[in-house]
Fold this protein.
Amino acid sequence: MAAGRKLGVLLLMAPLLLWLSTLIIIPHINMFMLSLSEKVDVRVYETGIANYMAFVEEPLYWNTFGRTAIMSIAATFLTLLIGFPVAYYIAKIAKGRLRATLFLLCLVPFWVSELVRTFGWMILLRESGILSGFLQWSGLVSGPVEFLYNDAAIMVGLVYTSMLFMVVPLVTTLDSLDDSMIEAGYDLGGSGYSILREVVIPHAMPGIVSGCIVVFMLSLGNYLTPVLLGGKDSLWFTEQIYAQFITRFNWEQGSAFGFLLLLLSSLIVWAGLKLSGQSLSKTMG
Amino acid sequence: MSDSDQLSHDLECRHVTKSFGDFIAVKDVSFTVPKGSFFSILGPSGCGKTTIMRMIAGFLDTSSGDILIKGRSVLDVAPNRRPVNMVFQHLALFPMMDVAGNIGYGLRRRGLPGPEIAKKVGAVLERVGLPDAGPKNINQLSGGQKQRVAIARCMVLDPDVLLLDEPLGALDLKLRDHMKVELKKLQSQFDTTFVYITHDQSEALVMSDQIAVMNKGEFEQVGTAHQLYYDPATAFVAGFVGDSNRWRGKIQTRNAKGAKVSATDGLAILAGPISQPLSKGDDVDIFVRPESIVISFDAKGVGKFDNNLQGTVEAVLFNGANSRTLVRETATGTQVDVALPQTGEFAELTPGTEVHLGWGRAQARCFAASDDVGVI
């Protein structure tokens, strides 16, 4: 009987275990091994940390690394800043049909692929694009203006791509805030700002943190948006990884970079959780 | 109205009306609440009582009319600046703060220095009997303690009027009975005007100095608990407050002492003084309270009453001190709900026993017939 139950549990867990081990654990172990092997000669490898040393010794690598982290954090904050009022409006102010429509509007961009969405931005922002054309037509500028291939364009693309992932958890947590809580705040003499700071934001904190984690991870690991909107100067760390794996065929170096990125994202998420006083189980549960 | 008159009222509503589109939620309601009194608005759900409360608190604008607090109109005062505070139906304590944080919230908004806030919070917690609850978390408190914290959170701001929106609704029966007494005690202790809304008549009757019975957006009657119970002004109040036997009938003869009414089921009833302008032939509702009917084993015991009838006990509904019996009248077959006296005489009453019932005409209240009576 006990053995039978054990087998049952094992069978139920099988898909999860299979997924975890084949898709996550095994490839990562493999990558880690790969990142620790140095190429000393043609088809001759030794175990060592040369790949990691290369990262430390080459300023371009760690500059890109730091830049990617800072830009991702900035994109996360911007997304939160824009997403919070949107989510608040959807959860607390809009009613019935309007609410459903607004939610759908947030979702609509995700019906096309990220590639197409990014090309959409390129059509708007490029030198011969719609925004430039409009400015020339209105007489504000005399010649064509290039809006693409700078950090601002990357930022716009990143925020746009991640908006939904911020709005959904925020709407969910704000929805669970009892309206009478906000009214009680006003009733006791609170202003809009103090209620936001002392009641609404503390309540929405799990949603804010989980939205930020998702958006940060998405931005950090994004490849298409920085490459297409930022051009060849975008210097995103995922591009370095891509270049090592595909262009230079240096899988050992690519693996090391991949591991460094994993380490970086884990570290920043941990720091974010510590700073906001949240725990992973509280925000994801 | 002179100034001193106005100042003795903490709250006054003048012809307040609120409509949502075509629907009129509150229709021309006027009342005054004297300083330091406990005023209740009692009515079935959907009668507009919450709308009145939200207008007083400032969460809703009035369609017309005026609301005055301490003689000054507050219509253009924002809710966070009105000298009223509200205890919400589900209390709306902030779970992200501890008890002291909750109570200190309003004081912090007023910009008081920290030590003074701590002192006031401590003092008010003492007054509601929770001196050590300050650092506790909201969900560590019991239902009754939450209630007291919610009241303390308002009272620490020293409001002119405290509004309470059915705050006992979520509690279980025993605790609710206990909190009724507690609320009344707190009110007299703080000596603040309480405006309490509820659909539960026993809450209103036990605690209030004045009760307004509300129905379909209008006040049916404003009076003390005693007045509402013994001297209801309308059929709705008679049916909604307390239990009653109710007969529909037509006035046969009408004189200064009252009227003779023949009920649709054939019973002839002598009804007491009538306040409404009713005359012969009018359709009326007669209300007789179960506890104002005298029950006796022989006809002599009830002979002196204006109304007396004979019947058979159909059922005995034992409920301790509130035990009742259902009596089927012999001639017409009408069923009468009678309270059993707790003197021991009727302790052994069994179904099938012949009994005699009687009541004075003053106990039979007569109102213009209305299908909208508060009996459920």
Q: What stands out?
A: The longest strand of chain B covers residues 9-20. Residues 236-368 of chain B form a domain with the OB fold (Dihydrolipoamide Acetyltransferase, E2P) fold (CATH 2.40.50.100). Chain B touches chain A at residues 57, 59, 78-81, 84-86, 88-90, 92, 94-97, 105-106, 109-110, 153-154, 157 (CB under 8 Å).
